[in-house]
Amino acid sequence: MLQNHSFVGCVNPQWSLIQHQTKLYLLDITKLSQELFFQILMFDFGNFGVLRLSTPAPLYDLTMLALEMPENGWSEEDGPKEGLANYIVDFLKKKAEMLEDYFSVEIDQEGNLTGLPLLLDNYIPPMEGLPMFILRLATEVNWDNEKDCFRDFSQECSTFYSIRKRYTVEEAPGAQHSVEEPGSSGSSWRWNVEHLLFKAFRTLFSPPKHFTEDGSVLQIANLPDLYKVFERC
């Protein structure tokens, strides 16, 4: 279906419409993009290009930003945030060689993030999610088991790269859409969805069967049935 679809449009950052043959489908882009990036991470493991950050991002600052977010799970029992941030910086610096070799995540000797994996040409992940990604690399990845480490990293990275409603800005109704350069920081999420993600869905993606059962892919109309309704009106 995804290989031969016609893109209809974006409903919002989570949902998009496509047509396949005579049927109209509603797709959960958050779930589909996360699965797409997970598959890319698993299948192209160790062969990623590098997405260079225009300005190195201090891991300490990113971690402190994440620790200020309510969803991080921090409590006073965990100790001072500054101490945790310093620990995470030191921890990730020790993993820097492995992160670069396997995942193209680059960290310099000063504890700055300088590069991320290039998973899809011209695609830049929503950088608003970067602080939580860095925090979860240190807290949610099992670094003691190689297989678990690769799986956990791929899950966290694919979540970070996915289109998520909380990290997108809805355009005002009737707003004029200018033509953006591919991959530019100004590229809208709508452009990324239509021209980057759906292109990848056609050629790089093997959707799991459970997507048709868990609400990720919903058939909402059959065009011949709609025509019959219109004929009766």
From TrEMBL:
The taxonomy runs: Eukaryota, Metazoa, Chordata, Craniata, Vertebrata
Q: Which PANTHER family match?
A: DNA MISMATCH REPAIR PROTEIN MLH, PMS, MUTL, DNA MISMATCH REPAIR PROTEIN MLH1
Regions annotated as coiled coil? none
Q: Mind listing the GO biological process terms from this record?
A: mismatch repair
One Gene Ontology molecular-function label: ATP hydrolysis activity
Q: Which domain of life is it from?
A: Eukaryota
Query: GO CC terms on record?
Result: MutLalpha complex
- Where the record annotates domain DNA mismatch repair protein Mlh1 C-terminal, the positions are 1-233
Protein's UniProt name = DNA mismatch repair protein Mlh1 C-terminal domain-containing protein
State the organism of origin: Synaphobranchus kaupii
